Amino acid sequence: MEKIAKVSLLIRLLIVLVACLNIFVITVAIITQSDANSSELSVGTSQSHISQVVNLPKSSESFSKELNAEGFNSYAIMLIPEFLFCLFIYWSLIKLFGLYQQGAIFTVIHINQLRNIGTCLLVWSVFDLLYPILLMLFLRISGLSESLPLFLSISSDQLLKLLIGLIIFVMSWIMTEGQKLQQEQELTI
Amino acid sequence: MAIIIQLDVMLAKRKMKLMELAELVNVTPQNLSVLKSGRAKAIRFSTLDAICAALKCNPGDILLHQTEQQKDE
């Protein structure tokens, strides 16, 4: 149990670090948006540098080109919603590993966190599919742009999110059964 | 549940307290309380054996089966 607590603390710190780096990189990418679909951010001297490449979702690359051509900040439009999903997952993971750190392994809260992550990934994959269409319809209806084409694409990213989301969802379901078994074990005198 | 635990009856007959029994059978008072209140889902043979030895009784003195009909009456 002590080992789990130590590893959980380490993972929590790592998640916080990754989340901070992600926020920093995306903020810089949005502010200093280039014409290309990916921007490279380098920190450090010419001899040693840390670089982080910000890529738009593969399914949205051509759509972002269209947005750029229309004069919109495609990074802001495409990355902010994506990043909100990421933030929610980071937050859920931090809470989940916090529970592991406290020694709660088969608890209802812990299972709910796992289910939230799975649901978020499922919603995210559907959102990825619908977002360009909804956004474009909004831009057309509001009169901000009339030349943007209708856009629908399915990429391996979306399928991967869907698959991982489903797996995590099923895992949370199995955990619920585990929690019932543990409860029964606790009530065996 | 159809199984009724009569631990409190036996404790009263033997004039023994729950804490004393817990010490004798090496089970926490909390767990014995769960058993006494009927919230327990199962009882191990080893625990039942220890309780019977401590209270000098048979499993039938502690566990009672009650049908739905008897319950309604």
UniProtKB/TrEMBL annotation, chain A:
Keywords: Membrane, Transmembrane, Transmembrane helix
Transmembrane segments: 9-31, 72-93, 114-139, 159-176
UniProt key word Amino-acid biosynthesis: no
Pfam families documented for this protein: DUF2975
Residue ranges that the Swiss-Prot or TrEMBL entry lists as coiled coil: none
Name recorded for this polypeptide: DUF2975 domain-containing protein
From TrEMBL, chain B:
All copies of domain HTH cro/C1-type, residue ranges: 13-62
InterPro entries with a match to the protein in the record: Cro/C1-type_HTH, Lambda_DNA-bd_dom_sf
Transmembrane feature ranges: none
Leader peptide range in chain numbering: none
GO MF terms held by the record: DNA binding
Protein name: Transcriptional regulator
Originating species: Paraglaciecola arctica BSs20135
